[in-house]
C-alpha cells in the first residue's frame, strides 16, 4: 500500500509538529492494509520512533526509493524487519522484496483518521447530528499492534 505524503501527492507531509519527536500526517493510497487501514485514511505518524513487532510503519520501498509504503512490522530478522500487509491478497511486502533494512523504516503509525464520507458508490459526505456523532466516534482511532494478527502473519 503506497502512501501519499500530505494532500494530493505533495512532496512534504501535510502537517508537521516539533516536540519530543517529529510527527507528520500522511494519506493512505491502496488496499494492502485493509481492514486495518483503508484507501483515503489519514495517518498520524511519528518519525524515528522505536518499532516493535506488530507496529504499523511507514517505510521506503526497497526497489523504488521514492515510493513510501505502509506495512506491519511483523518480526525483527537478521538485516532488518520482515513486513507484511494485513490484506494477504494485495501483495507487495517482504514476501516479494525480503527483509527491509532498519534505515528504510521511517516512522511508526500512531493513529488514523477516516475521512468524513459515507460508504457506498456515491461517497456522499456525512450529514446530520446523529451521523456526525457516529462518524466522530469511529473516525479517530489509535493504530495498535495486534498480537493475534502478528502471530497469524508470522506463521506464513
* Tally of alpha and pi helices: 3
Percentage of helical residues?
Answer: 10-25%
Kindly report how far apart the N and C termini lie: 19 Å
Quick one: biggest sheet? 9 strands, antiparallel
Oligomer state of the chains in this structure: single chain
* Beta-strand residue percentage: 25-35%
Question: How many strands?
Answer: 9
The whole-angstrom Rg is 16 Å
Looking at the structure, what is the overall shape? elongated
Backbone structural class: alpha+beta
Question: Which spans have pLDDT < 50 for at least 5 consecutive residues?
Answer: 5-20, 150-156
Q: SSE order, as H and E?
A: EEEEEEEHEHEH
Query: Average pLDDT across residues?
Result: 78
Write a concise keyword list for the protein shown above.
single chain, about 160 residues, alpha+beta, 9-stranded antiparallel β-sheet, 3 helices, about 15% helix, elongated, disordered C terminus
What does this protein structure show overall?
The protein has 156 residues and is α+β, with helices and mostly antiparallel strands. Helices cover 15% and strands 33% of the residues. It is built from 3 helices and 9 strands; from the N terminus they run βββββββαβαβα. The two termini are 19 Å apart.
List the helices and strands and how they pair.
Elements: E1 2-5, E2 16-17, E3 22-29, E4 42-47, E5 56-60, E6 68-77, E7 80-84, H1 94-97, E8 105-113, H2 129-139, E9 140-142, H3 147-154
Antiparallel strand pairs: 1-3, 2-3, 3-4, 4-8, 5-6, 5-8, 6-7, 8-9
Q: Short summary of the structure?
A:
The protein has 156 residues and is of the alpha+beta class. The chain has 3 helices and 9 strands.
